[in-house]
Design goal:
Helix content is 39%, strand content 20%. The protein has six helices and six strands, in the order αβαββαβαββαα. α4 runs parallel beside α6 (126-137). The protein has one domain (4-137): CBS-domain, CATH 3.10.580.10.
Protein backbone atom coordinates (compact mmCIF):
# COMPACT_ATOMS: atom_id res chain seq x y z
CA UNK A 1 0.00 0.00 0.00
CA UNK A 2 1.20 3.52 -0.77
CA UNK A 3 2.26 5.81 2.06
CA UNK A 4 2.31 9.58 2.46
CA UNK A 5 6.03 9.47 1.64
CA UNK A 6 5.22 7.83 -1.72
CA UNK A 7 3.00 10.68 -2.91
CA UNK A 8 4.58 13.69 -1.16
CA UNK A 9 6.71 16.34 -2.77
CA UNK A 10 9.95 15.85 -0.83
CA UNK A 11 11.03 19.47 -0.69
CA UNK A 12 9.11 21.51 1.83
CA UNK A 13 10.50 24.97 2.39
CA UNK A 14 9.67 26.24 5.86
CA UNK A 15 9.19 29.81 7.00
CA UNK A 16 9.71 30.81 10.61
CA UNK A 17 7.26 32.75 12.74
CA UNK A 18 9.48 35.86 12.90
CA UNK A 19 9.83 36.05 9.09
CA UNK A 20 7.69 38.63 7.33
CA UNK A 21 4.74 38.13 5.00
CA UNK A 22 6.83 39.70 2.22
CA UNK A 23 9.56 37.10 2.76
CA UNK A 24 6.94 34.34 2.63
CA UNK A 25 5.58 35.72 -0.65
CA UNK A 26 9.08 35.93 -2.12
CA UNK A 27 9.81 32.32 -1.10
CA UNK A 28 6.55 31.15 -2.66
CA UNK A 29 7.35 32.98 -5.89
CA UNK A 30 10.94 31.72 -5.99
CA UNK A 31 9.92 28.09 -5.51
CA UNK A 32 6.62 28.33 -7.46
CA UNK A 33 4.55 27.07 -4.52
CA UNK A 34 1.34 28.21 -2.86
CA UNK A 35 1.98 27.32 0.78
CA UNK A 36 4.75 27.19 3.35
CA UNK A 37 4.83 25.28 6.61
CA UNK A 38 5.51 27.61 9.54
CA UNK A 39 8.33 25.98 11.49
CA UNK A 40 10.55 26.60 14.47
CA UNK A 41 14.34 26.56 14.22
CA UNK A 42 14.37 22.74 14.30
CA UNK A 43 11.81 22.46 11.43
CA UNK A 44 9.05 21.39 13.81
CA UNK A 45 5.76 22.50 12.33
CA UNK A 46 3.69 25.20 13.99
CA UNK A 47 1.25 26.08 11.23
CA UNK A 48 0.79 26.64 7.52
CA UNK A 49 0.61 29.85 5.51
CA UNK A 50 -0.88 29.99 2.02
CA UNK A 51 -0.77 32.56 -0.74
CA UNK A 52 -4.45 33.15 -0.01
CA UNK A 53 -3.63 33.92 3.64
CA UNK A 54 -1.11 36.53 2.52
CA UNK A 55 -3.53 38.11 0.06
CA UNK A 56 -6.54 38.25 2.38
CA UNK A 57 -5.18 38.47 5.91
CA UNK A 58 -2.23 40.75 5.18
CA UNK A 59 -2.64 42.68 1.92
CA UNK A 60 -6.42 43.12 1.82
CA UNK A 61 -6.45 43.90 5.56
CA UNK A 62 -4.06 46.79 4.92
CA UNK A 63 -0.98 45.50 6.75
CA UNK A 64 2.54 46.20 5.54
CA UNK A 65 3.89 42.84 4.31
CA UNK A 66 7.48 44.03 4.91
CA UNK A 67 6.83 44.28 8.66
CA UNK A 68 3.93 41.87 9.28
CA UNK A 69 5.31 38.71 10.92
CA UNK A 70 4.05 35.29 9.87
CA UNK A 71 3.59 34.32 13.52
CA UNK A 72 0.92 37.05 13.80
CA UNK A 73 -1.30 35.38 11.20
CA UNK A 74 -4.36 33.83 12.79
CA UNK A 75 -4.51 30.15 11.91
CA UNK A 76 -7.98 29.66 10.43
CA UNK A 77 -8.14 25.90 10.87
CA UNK A 78 -6.59 23.23 13.02
CA UNK A 79 -3.28 22.08 11.56
CA UNK A 80 -3.63 18.80 9.65
CA UNK A 81 -0.47 16.78 9.03
CA UNK A 82 0.43 13.31 7.77
CA UNK A 83 3.16 11.05 9.11
CA UNK A 84 5.56 9.77 6.42
CA UNK A 85 4.60 6.15 7.12
CA UNK A 86 0.87 6.85 7.15
CA UNK A 87 -1.25 4.95 4.64
CA UNK A 88 -1.94 7.24 1.68
CA UNK A 89 -5.67 6.44 1.88
CA UNK A 90 -5.74 7.88 5.40
CA UNK A 91 -3.89 10.98 4.24
CA UNK A 92 -6.36 11.47 1.37
CA UNK A 93 -9.26 10.97 3.77
CA UNK A 94 -7.82 13.70 6.03
CA UNK A 95 -7.50 16.06 3.06
CA UNK A 96 -11.09 15.33 2.03
CA UNK A 97 -12.66 15.50 5.50
CA UNK A 98 -10.79 18.64 6.55
CA UNK A 99 -11.09 20.20 3.08
CA UNK A 100 -7.40 21.06 2.84
CA UNK A 101 -5.59 21.35 -0.48
CA UNK A 102 -2.15 20.82 1.03
CA UNK A 103 -0.97 18.66 3.89
CA UNK A 104 2.52 18.83 5.41
CA UNK A 105 4.24 15.48 5.90
CA UNK A 106 6.20 15.03 9.11
CA UNK A 107 8.67 12.57 10.54
CA UNK A 108 9.40 12.80 14.26
CA UNK A 109 7.59 16.14 14.27
CA UNK A 110 9.81 17.65 11.56
CA UNK A 111 8.56 18.66 8.13
CA UNK A 112 9.99 16.40 5.41
CA UNK A 113 7.57 17.08 2.57
CA UNK A 114 4.16 18.29 1.53
CA UNK A 115 1.27 16.77 -0.39
CA UNK A 116 -0.71 19.13 -2.60
CA UNK A 117 -3.60 18.38 -4.92
CA UNK A 118 -1.13 18.33 -7.81
CA UNK A 119 0.84 15.54 -6.10
CA UNK A 120 -2.38 13.56 -5.72
CA UNK A 121 -3.14 14.09 -9.42
CA UNK A 122 0.32 12.90 -10.48
CA UNK A 123 0.46 9.88 -8.18
CA UNK A 124 -2.98 8.30 -8.09
CA UNK A 125 -5.65 6.95 -10.46
CA UNK A 126 -8.18 9.39 -11.92
CA UNK A 127 -11.19 8.22 -9.86
CA UNK A 128 -9.27 8.79 -6.61
CA UNK A 129 -8.08 12.20 -7.79
CA UNK A 130 -11.63 13.18 -8.71
CA UNK A 131 -12.96 12.13 -5.30
CA UNK A 132 -10.30 14.08 -3.39
CA UNK A 133 -10.59 17.24 -5.49
CA UNK A 134 -14.37 17.14 -5.25
CA UNK A 135 -14.35 16.66 -1.46
CA UNK A 136 -11.73 19.37 -0.86
CA UNK A 137 -13.60 21.83 -3.05
CA UNK A 138 -17.08 21.32 -1.50
CA UNK A 139 -18.48 24.51 0.00
CA UNK A 140 -18.89 24.34 3.78
Amino acid sequence: MATARDIMHPSAYCIQTHDTAANAARMMAEHDIGALPICDAEDRIKGLVTDRDLAIQVMAAGYDPETYEIGDLPQQHALVTADVAEDADLTLAKMSEQQVRRIPVVEDGRVVGIIAQADVARSLPEPVVGQVVSAVSEPD
